[in-house]
Design a protein that fits this description.
The protein contains 5 helices and 3 strands; from the N terminus they run αααβββαα. By secondary structure, the protein is an alpha+beta fold. It has one domain. It has a 3-stranded mixed β-sheet with strand order 1-3-2, covered by helices on one side. β2 and β3 form a beta hairpin. The longest helix is centred in the C-terminal third of the chain and has 13 residues. It starts with a helix and ends in a 6-residue tail after the last helix.
């Protein structure tokens, strides 16, 4: 499967309401629709992996940790960590 088709398949599995909430606030959208816990980790004082890592997912526990940056990088990190947890991407939590 080509990358664009794979991306379309993954994004197509996310309900429109969840996409809107993720766009408005990744932190709220992830917690509301994917039942994951988001925790700021101020102890991540400097970028890990040579500046390429601001977050970590503990998939079995349903936790996403991120380094607070107070800017758009935080949104990228949260959405990146969501994308690395394959089961929530294909099975959003029920919102009703």
């Amino acid at each position: 499967m080509s990358t664009p088709r794979h991306v379309d398949r993954l994004l197509g599995a996310i309900p429109a309401e969840a996409k809107r909430d993720l766009a408005d606030s990744p932190e709220v959208g992830i917690q509301l629709h994917f039942s994951l816990t988001i925790e700021a980790a101020p102890s991540f004082e400097s970028w890990g992996n040579g500046g390429w890592c601001d977050g970590s997912s503990i998939t079995d526990a349903g936790i996403i940790l991120y380094r607070p940056t107070s800017n758009r990088r935080e949104n990228f990190t949260l959405l990146h960590e969501l994308a690395t947890t394959s089961s929530p991407m294909t099975t959003p939590a029920s919102t009703g």
